[in-house]
Design goal:
Layout: E1 4-11, E2 15-24, E3 27-37, E4 41-42, E5 45-46, H1 49-67, E6 73-78, E7 84-93, H2 101-112, E8 120-132, E9 135-138, E10 148-159, H3 160-172, E11 176-182, H4 183-191, H5 194-199, E12 201-206, E13 211-217, E14 220-227, H6 231-241, H7 246-256, E15 269-272, E16 281-284, H8 285-310, E17 320-323, H9 332-340, E18 344-346, E19 353-354, H10 365-377, H11 391-406
Helix pairs in contact: 1-3, 4-10, 6-7, 6-8, 8-9
Length: about 400
């Protein structure tokens, strides 16, 4: 039985990806996807509206063709060094001596009543747990008897301008934005198991422009952070270290890259194109590993330092899950194990059917997660909608494009 069509739009630094999901009672079936190189972002933040809009249009049109449907609204991901998360509590007295839906809303509102600078806005208010009188660890207190209700929430904020630019780019591409979702939160929907969420796990979304971290414990998010370093830094290091153009450095990273030099054979050789028409050279692949290893180790060490400062590092009981495009580099999970001193694995999208094989790579974890997130929240009443659907403008823009192509 066909259901609702939900689209996840991952506006990343290196690629823009749109994934279309058909959500029904049977689950989420992936029916289409489109991907296009991203040219208008730097470290997760839009720096060129026109280039970003063009990339979004290309990805959306490819996804529409494959899915056989028209896309008018999306769930968009957000990342960047401007993202900040913090924990805050809220307490109320129970008037009826029993927790009602209104009480739950009131206590979340009380916890959310914190001063936020004018240049920032709340992206998520995520409930960690409720406490009724002295009983903690409650996820759904509705109907429980008590005199005092407390909520602990995690609030994620971002720069107003960065969020507005993402919405503006989507709107200019003829799309409405249902919601803006923190990319690490979206990725967690696709790659973390229920057991990992409960026991505790550190999710690391190792992307092109940023590396996002989200710590889960007892089924709730405890800490988030974004580091403005990612796979692009690895590519730049290769370009400088091997004296090769950046485009060729990216190809070398994808084809031969290894984050742990001890995994590379001593006699392995790679060909490196020269700069400015110089002849290609052959080098030991070991040199490539020696360039990549310290940078990957540095990124994970910085993430671990952030986790240690939060005081939650002991909560990652089940270990570390690394996902994102840069997680496809061999040796990444081994370095994560060394730095975090905990079991580590590479996270692949799960919980989907249909074109699952097509998107079964860490690179698409965020986009798949956005679809799964959208499927989950669409079952509940949406708190807000960024922009009302404007089908008229969408249809008119498509008609103008058709007439232009005919002429």
């Amino acid at each position: 039985m066909a259901g609702d069509i939900i689209v996840g739009l991952d506006i990343g630094t290196t690629k823009i990806c749109a994934i279309v999901g058909d959500v029904s009672l049977d689950g989420v079936e992936i029916i289409g996807m489109g991907s296009h190189p991203s040219e208008g972002l730097r470290k997760g933040v839009v720096i060129n509206i026109e280039h970003t809009v063009n990339s979004i249009k290309e990805a959306i049109e490819e996804a529409e063709t494959m899915a056989g449907c028209e896309i008018s609204s999306v769930y968009a991901g957000i990342a960047g060094g401007h993202i900040k998360g913090f924990n805050t509590p809220g307490v109320i007295a129970l008037k009826e001596k029993e927790v009602t839906k209104k009480d739950i809303d009131r206590v979340i509102e009380a916890a959310s009543a914190v001063a936020i600078p004018m240049d920032r806005e709340v992206i998520h208010t995520l409930v960690q747990e409720f406490i009724v009188d002295d009983q903690d660890g409650i996820m759904d207190p509705l109907g429980m008897a008590g005199v005092r209700l407390e909520a602990k929430v995690h609030i994620v904020t971002g720069a107003v301008t960065s969020a507005q630019n993402i919405i503006k780019c989507a709107n200019k591409a003829g799309l409405d934005v249902y919601d803006i979702v923190l990319e690490s939160l979206a990725s967690s929907e696709a790659v973390l198991t229920k057991e990992e969420r409960n026991i505790g796990a550190a999710l690391i979304d190792f992307g092109g422009g940023t590396t996002d971290m989200a710590l889960f414990s007892r089924g709730a998010i405890k800490h988030t952070s974004v580091l403005a370093l990612g796979g692009d830094n690895l590519t730049y290091d290769i370009a400088v270290g091997l004296r090769t153009p950046k485009l060729d450095a990216e190809k070398i990273k994808i084809k031969y890259g290894c984050a742990l030099s001890s995994l590379i054979g001593r006699d392995e050789i790679i060909e490196v194109p020269g700069v400015g028409g110089r002849k290609p050279r052959t080098l030991s692949r070991q040199i490539l590993g020696e360039i990549l290893e310290p940078r990957v180790e540095e990124i994970f060490t910085l993430i671990y330092g952030e986790l240690a400062r939060s005081g939650y590092q002991e909560r990652a009981g089940s270990g570390v899950v690394v996902t994102g495009g840069s997680a496809e580099l061999s040796g990444v999970s081994e370095i994560a194990e060394q730095v975090f001193n905990a079991p580590a694995r590479v996270g692949y999208p799960e919980g989907i059917t249909g074109l699952a094989d097509l998107v079964n790579t860490p690179m698409y974890a965020t986009a798949v997660g956005l679809v799964l997130y959208g499927a989950k929240v669409s079952k509940r009443k949406r708190k807000f909608r960024i922009r009302d659907a404007n089908i008229f403008h969408l249809v008119m823009s498509r008609m103008k494009k058709w007439f232009k192509d005919i002429v």
